[in-house]
Write a structure and sequence with these properties.
This protein is mainly alpha-helical. Strand 1 and strand 2 form a beta hairpin.
Length: 67
């Protein structure tokens, strides 16, 4: 997964926070880029907050609660 590499692009997870590509799409990420790996650090954090709204913070690998 991303592991802090903000430009990481993978088949399931992308970006520095390891956001699921499907979660990226479902939570408004397409307004910024096709996947998190092509978005800025700020944009990734913004979408992650949308995903995480109402949930506990997931671990550093993006596991849990839809990241």
């Amino acid at each position: 997964m991303g592991g802090g590499h903000w430009s990481y692009r993978g088949p399931i997870y992308s970006g520095g926070l390891g956001i699921k590509n499907t979660s990226w799409t479902e939570n408004g990420g397409l307004q910024f880029a096709p996947d998190a790996g092509l978005a800025t650090q700020y944009e990734q954090i913004y979408v992650a907050k949308q995903i995480n709204s109402g949930y506990d913070v997931p671990d550093q690998y993006g596991c849990g609660h839809g990241w």
